[in-house]
Design goal:
The protein has 15 helices and 48 strands. The protein is α+β, with helices and mostly antiparallel strands. A hairpin with a 2-residue loop joins strand 47 (about 840-855) and strand 48. Helix 3 packs parallel to helix 4 (about 385-400) and helix 10 (about 530-555) packs parallel to helix 11. The chain is globular and about 110 Å long. The termini are far apart.
Length: about 900
């Protein structure tokens, strides 16, 4: 009997319901539809809520087994029937049940459920949820990071059976033996005796003792039809206990494992291509509002060549996995365990969630491997040895529950460095348990994020990531800042939902309002015209970057699979290839193109060249399993160079061409376009004029090797009519020297000079140089832009900062509003959104800006120019431009006032 539908809900913010016996005298509540999350009627509520529902018991059920079953309630609940307490359950994602055979009465019965949704910042009865920046000791996945939801959020049912009842069926497939082993759990509510069990033609007499029994039935097939993404064929195992009970489950005959450094499905190598599925949805927050919405997700993957989804830190509803089984999508399943602190209960709680997940979902052929924990080496309060010991113990127990699948102990290894930065490229190795054995293998399970825009070094790292002989599984990558078109998202909410202030509606509206405010503050209308045009440009740039990154990974012969972060926007993580309504962004088309087979992937060693330099490029054929195929290819380089050839596929990934070509191209952007089998992939490169220095001399502090005569600046330097360049990355170790040097800088600038400060810390500038305080602007994912200005002469301007600025992209920023308040101008800045849910806002940061002081100008440059001089043509050109600009800002006169000491203020 389905108990979904109309329930009463009463909120209990003061937590007085138990003392006032609400389980006997239920207060006036409101009618809600279960399943739901209670945020649909009271957005933002964390705490205690009470549900009530009446149902009828038939007299014909007398003597039978009656169970009330909940598929999931978030997070802790207690249940009463007719005022009598049945028990409680902790855990928000797994099913549980209570036997009410002896307590249900014929006719009307009243079921009352008390639910605690733990808040983020205080405890209720020992429960508090947590997030990466506020870790707790309960496993709730990303609930408090995204939306801290509560309530009866999955199905509720009354199950009536014979006292001798089947409570679980687990089918273990052995497809290449034409065999399956059906494990049946039977609850015998009567006496010990012999019973006849049948399943798929197998008939067996078994002795069942009173209580819980486990029986295994071997089943033989004449010929197995394999389950695969191309043929998701499902069998049904119907188990019958003669005269007592009959239950059915669906299953698939397939084998998924690791061999020779590859994932293998049914004996054939397969590359996993897909997405992180964060389980975040509009209105309902954590589950698809309709089955049609879920089907759209799967169809989007299937028709575009994707075969994989990582159900990240949130077990989906059972019906969702049924759909994956039917449509042939490969799933990595995970419990809701992430960023949990060490406590006496932690391991038991983790194990409880893992057991619930595996027991519930182990018949789904779509689930090809379990991931037990995520980034366990980041769990607060654990040493690395403690984390390893815990994952090992949990792995042993999980293996007992399901020996048939691959099992990863923890996703994302210790010591992972961002791609393209210094770090061990083989870090991230995880232990994976192979099917039907206790034997383990090693894989590289990489959370391989890179700085954006991606540098040339990052793209090269993706092409070479991993370790010979180990499958390289990039289980997370991407996460580019790709805001949705907020107005289109907001229009889809109903007027009543806007008025109520649904959490997801409010979050998108707050982000949009904040972005509009910062857009106006930054005076970006001359650059992008409108906020909507800015969003379009950001999405186009990020789509191109993610296409390059994905194609680079596919050109890696060790790659076994990848999961882009992420399928859809999730709360403050606006990284999706679709928005929260599953409307595509440009990145979806980019990933579709980069995931095709066959594909010829072009690569350029350096994407920014000085005029006259050589272009070093290569092309790699990605053919996966189509060995022996022959292809014609064309490579077009700029407007003049065309290379044609033929290639025969001899491997899944193989080099085709690698050359150096002397270019005689004027400054501008060009493309290397590789075409094969009617498909084209391209990579853009930029030719930059070197620039001409317009000054004969500069003064510097800490900077050498410039192609211009250089004076050494010190506290007694007195020439205000040359540009002053200061390397402040390390600051001044001598505090007195700091005051003296900045005292002289300030006097030079006040009298009409120009000082350029490279990557300074701003507090000393306030103490000694600037009249107002400039505060640091913390950043997360950013949208960086470059205005038209002489400092950027000969470089891309009035646009989102793309690959040309990848090497010099700043790590730190100041608040743009502070720069403006000091009378300055932001020439290159960033809009950074707050991805940790709240506050849902954007911050405006300044990466390169000018501030007037007296008659002169200070230029602050956080772009990484100095460390890239001689290695990056953009850095070289920026230095020339900066020097020329600084010289143009110098105002002659008042030189005699510099004859005073650096510690003496200027006379009025």
């Amino acid at each position: 009997m389905n108990l979904n539908g109309k329930w009463e809900l009463a909120f209990d913010p003061q937590n007085v319901g138990k003392k006032q016996n609400w389980f006997k005298r239920f207060p006036r509540g409101q009618t809600v539809t279960v399943p739901h999350v209670w945020e649909q009627v009271r957005p933002g509520y964390d705490g205690v809520g009470w549900y009530r529902r009446a149902f009828s018991v038939s007299a014909a059920w007398h003597g039978r087994r009656i169970v009330v079953r909940f598929d999931a309630v978030q997070y802790f609940c207690e249940v009463w029937l007719n005022g009598t307490r049945l028990g409680d359950h902790e855990g928000g994602y797994g099913p549980f049940e209570f036997d009410i055979s002896r307590r249900a009465r014929t006719g009307k019965n009243e079921l009352v459920v008390r639910v605690i949704n733990p808040p983020l910042n205080y405890e209720i009865e020992g429960f508090r949820c947590g997030a990466p920046l506020n870790q707790g000791n309960i496993p709730i996945g990303k609930a408090s990071w995204y939306y801290n939801f509560g309530g009866i959020w999955q199905d509720v049912a009354l199950v009536v059976t014979d006292p001798v009842a089947i409570t679980d069926i687990f089918v273990k497939p052995f497809p290449f033996r034409n065999r399956a082993l059906v494990q049946v759990t039977v609850q015998n509510g009567g006496r010990t005796g012999k019973f006849e069990l049948t399943c798929l033609g197998t008939r067996r007499q078994v002795q069942l003792r009173s209580g819980v029994n486990t029986v295994e039935l071997p089943v033989q097939f004449d010929k197995v039809r394999l389950w695969s993404p191309n043929d998701p064929y499902l069998y049904t195992a119907t188990v019958e206990i003669a005269g007592h009970d009959r239950q059915s489950v669906r299953f698939g005959m397939r084998e998924f494992t690791v061999k020779n450094g590859q994932f293998v499905l049914n004996g054939q190598p397969i590359v996993l291509k897909g997405f992180l599925q964060q389980g975040c949805y509009p209105r309902t927050l954590v589950y698809p509002e309709t089955h049609e919405l879920a089907r759209r997700e799967f169809e989007m993957l299937k028709k575009n060549g994707f075969n994989f989804m990582r159900a990240h830190l949130q077990p989906p509803p059972p019906w969702y996995l049924d759909m994956a089984d039917e449509m042939g999508i490969l799933i990595e399943a995970e419990p809701p365990v992430g960023w949990i602190i060490n406590s006496p209960q932690t391991e038991a709680r983790c194990l409880r969630e893992i057991e619930a997940l595996i027991r519930r979902d182990r018949n789904h052929p779509s689930i090809v491997f379990w991931c037990l924990l995520n980034e366990a080496y980041h769990f607060l309060g654990f040493t690395i040895p403690e984390a390893i010991a815990m994952t090992t113990r949990i792995g042993r127990r999980a293996r007992e529950l399901d020996p048939t699948r691959l099992m990863i102990d923890t996703s994302g290894g210790a010591g992972m460095a961002p791609v393209g930065t210094k770090g061990d490229k083989h870090s991230g190795c995880a232990s994976i348990m192979l099917p039907n054995t206790m034997r383990r293998a090693e894989i590289v399970d990489a959370h391989a994020y890179c700085p954006l825009p991606p540098t040339d070094a990052a793209l090269a790292a993706y092409r070479n990531y991993g370790y010979p002989g180990r499958v390289c599984f990039v289980s997370e990558y991407g996460a580019p800042e790709m805001p949705p078109q907020y107005r289109a998202v907001l229009r889809k909410y109903r007027p009543a939902e806007r008025h109520l202030g649904l959490e997801d509606y409010r979050l998108h509206k707050d982000f949009y309002d904040s972005l509009c405010h910062q857009f106006a503050q930054a005076k970006l209308t001359p650059v992008f015209a409108t906020v909507e045009r800015l969003i379009d440009e950001v999405n186009e740039v990020r789509a191109g970057e993610m296409r390059l990154v994905t194609a680079a990974m596919r050109a890696n012969p060790r790659l076994g699979g990848y999961a882009f972060c992420q399928l859809a926007d999730a709360s403050g993580e606006l990284f999706g290839v679709t928005d929260v309504w599953r409307e595509p962004k440009p990145a979806l088309a980019a990933l579709i193109a980069a995931s095709r087979v066959p594909l010829l992937v072009p690569a350029v060693k350096r994407r920014v060249l000085a005029a006259g330099e050589e272009l070093e490029f290569s092309a790699t054929l990605v053919n996966e399993s189509q060995r022996g195929a022959r292809y014609n290819y064309t490579i077009q380089i700029g407007p003049r160079i065309r290379i044609t050839g033929k290639v025969r596929a001899t491997a899944a990934v193989q080099p085709v061409v690698s050359r150096k070509i002397k270019l005689n191209l004027p400054a501008g952007s060009y493309r290397v376009v590789a075409t094969l089998a009617g498909r084209r992939e391209e990579v853009e490169f930029l030719v930059v004029e070197r620039g001409r220095m317009k000054v004969p001399r500069v003064a510097t502090h800490g900077i050498t090797g410039l192609d211009v005569k250089t004076d050494i600046f010190g506290n007694n330097y007195r020439d205000k009519n040359v540009p002053l360049l200061m390397d402040l990355r390390q600051g001044f170790t001598n505090r007195a020297l700091l005051a003296e040097n900045f005292g002289q800088v300030k006097k030079i600038v006040q009298l009409g000079g120009c000082a350029v400060l490279f990557e300074p810390e701003v507090l000393p500038l306030y103490e000694h140089l600037f009249p107002t305080l400039l505060r640091m602007q913390p950043v997360m994912r950013t949208i960086s832009y470059v205005r038209q200005h002489p400092i950027f002469a000969g470089l891309p301007v009035n646009q989102v900062a793309g690959y040309a600025y990848a090497a010099v992209h700043p790590d730190k920023l100041e608040r743009g509003a502070d720069v403006v308040a000091a009378g300055g101008e932001v020439l290159s800045g960033s809009l950074s959104m707050h991805m940790w849910t709240r506050p849902a806002d954007y911050r405006w940061g300044a990466g390169l800006y000018t501030i007037p002081i007296g008659r002169g100008t200070v230029v602050v440059c956080h772009l990484k120019v100095l460390e890239n001089l001689g290695r990056c043509r953009v850095a070289d050109r920026l230095m020339v431009n900066i020097i020329n600009y600084a010289a143009s800002r110098i105002r002659r006169g008042s030189e005699e006032k510099l004859l005073s000491r650096c510690i003496d203020p200027l006379e009025e």
